[in-house]
Amino acid sequence: MRRAAARRSARLPPRDGAILRKVLLVLAGALVILETVPRWVSIPGLTAAELRPPYLESTADRAFAPHPYLLYSPKPDYARAADPGSSVARSFHHGPLGFRAPEVARSRPEGTLRIACVGGSSTYGTGPSSDEATWPAQLGARLAEGSGGATEVLNAGVPAWTSFECLTGLAFRVLPMGPDLVLFYLATNDAESALWPDPVADNVHYRQVWPTFRPSPLEPALERSVLYLAWRRYATDYLSQRADLGFQSKRLPAGPDGERLAQYRAPERKGPLPEQGFENFRRNLVSMVALTRAHGARPVLLTQAIWSEDPTSDSLLDGEVRLRAHRRMTGIVRDVAAGAQVPLIETAEHLEAAARAEVEATGAQSIFSANVHLTDGGAQRLASFVASELSRLGLL
Asked: Structural domain tally of the chain?
């Protein structure tokens, strides 16, 4: 009797119990609504594209993919249409062999002069608006017109590649295409690598293995819930961590507190820069020249142009220290060309002088879109200059 009375006294009053039931009922209804309505009605912030971005399940929307020997490489048959909402609409396409379009066939036609262009994003064409506007494509169109179609140009540029990746890519991607001439347009990515903390000979101070993601075994089941996806999207850093699996795979150094930095800035260096990164570039460039010749092709070195709107800043992309490192790399290109008796085309002087002339005349330049990246007009100017220099040097 006493226990029964105690249980009755521990129960909520009828009114409080009714309120609790109503609250629970409202919460349950809200959960049901949130779980079901977004599946049928497009609600901002709760759309499938926002809660489960395509790159989480597939790399189909990514232009680059891991490669066992090259770290990453352009995905074959990739295509991205221009975004009309962007301030600068750009489209990108890769051919079936994984080169930026327009891609040449693996087998070179009889009697055709084939030229391969090796470099980073400024060769691949991050700045120009289309495949046809990149400087290798414009060079190919110009030379083909002058030779009756007997000349073709392969764009073997890949964004963010340093001389390490370009050396490997030359061996496994470019030389099997049977080029007669190989144009090397390199400097700035190696300059950034040289500015990374504690440079070493194999570049692992700068590059890391392409990161992978292994989801929990429960993840597929949990992802069926809209509520879970919304919580993961807005209450955790899950998506930002997945987005960090970017194709550049740079190793972010540790800060003073030992934690990894979210972003690395150019070091404050008033004295000499560390030598290792520059030694790496010289060694790799010499190796690329030798490898090209060993496979019966002729190497041609181009100096890489760079532009900065604020050359005294501390920007890692185009600030004072980056420009100093870039100029040093440009000097190495000239040294290797002279020492190995390789034809040299001074594209840096040509483009930078043209940009300075525009600024003096109009107050602005139209050749560079940013850093080393070119506009459509800048790529056209580079292609025209290279074509005239190849002709002057008797290489066509």
From this structure: 1
Kindly report the pTM of this predicted structure: 0.83
Q: Domain for residue 150, yes or no? A: yes
Q: Helix or strand or coil: residue 90? A: coil
The CATH number covering residue 120 comes to 3.40.50.1110
Confidence of residue 188 (pLDDT cuts 50, 70, 90): very high
Give residue 156's pLDDT band: very low, low, confident or very high (50, 70, 90).
very high
pLDDT tops 70 at residue 395: yes
Confidence at residue 85, expressed as pLDDT on a 0 to 100 scale: 61
Residues in CB range of 348: below 8 A, 6 or more apart: 303, 304, 305, 306, 330
Structural domain contains residue 306:
yes
Token pair belonging to 173: 């991607």
Q: Domain range spanning residue 284? A: 64-206+267-392
The neighbour count for residue 98, using CB atoms within 10 Å, is 20
Report whether 362 contacts 324 (CB < 8 A): no
Residue 240 lies in a domain: no
Q: Which residues pair with 79 in a beta bridge?
A: 93
Residue 14: what pLDDT?
67
Is residue 73 predicted with pLDDT exceeding 60? yes
* First-last CA distance in the chain: 108
Placement of tokens 């490997």 in the chain = 168
Q: Is residue 32 part of a domain?
A: no
Rounded CA separation 373/185 (Å) = 12
Q: Is a pLDDT exceeding 60 seen at residue 91?
A: yes
The β-bridge partners of 345 are 302
With vertex at residue 243, the alpha carbon angle to CA 121 and CA 59, rounded to the nearest 5 degrees, is 75
Tokens representing 59 are 């790399």
More confident residue, 275 or 20: 275
Residue with tokens 């800060």: 255
Q: Is there a contact between 189 and 195 (Cβ–Cβ < 8 Å)? A: no
Who's near 34: CB < 8 A, 6+ residues apart?
226, 227, 230
> Phi, psi (5° rounding) for residue 321?
-70, -40
- The answer to whether 233 and 239 are in contact (CB under 8 A) is yes
